[in-house]
Write a structure and sequence with these properties.
Elements: H1 9-14, H2 43-58, H3 67-84, H4 88-91, H5 97-118, H6 122-126, H7 136-145, H8 148-151
Helix pairs in contact: 2-3, 3-5
Length: 155
Amino acid sequence: MPGPAPKPTMLKALAGNPGRRPLNQKEAELPPAKSTPPSRLGAKEREIWQRYARDLIDSGLLRSIDVGAFARFCSLTVHSEALAAEDWTEAFPGVSPEHRVRLLTNLSAAIRQLEGDLGLNPSTRSRIQLQGSDGAKDNKEKAAQASWRSLARIK
């Protein structure tokens, strides 16, 4: 199918459904992810997890089924940071500078895709608006406590 990938229903609901198309009301309700990182992640990946996970879970964007994608984001971020470091040859012996540039480009593209899917980039967040008359703080609290189905009904 040509065109951009479909936007997740929760992100559509948080953005106020700008396309005005009917939201998928039969989408599976999944429990929020746990704040503890998966055991397969290394120490540096766990640092990335701890940096972002709590905010994503509190906002309802990180669900149990998204843990694999978020773990990939953490791993790719660690590899990208290692390749971008000045002492990258120690972490990746035998990798030529030309190959390093290609790896960084590919890692950056993969990270950008995951950031968009997980709501981690500014353009995705700029489209998310909580609507309501109770004030922004109350809306954020409601979003953190509600499932995506109830988010579509916040007025």
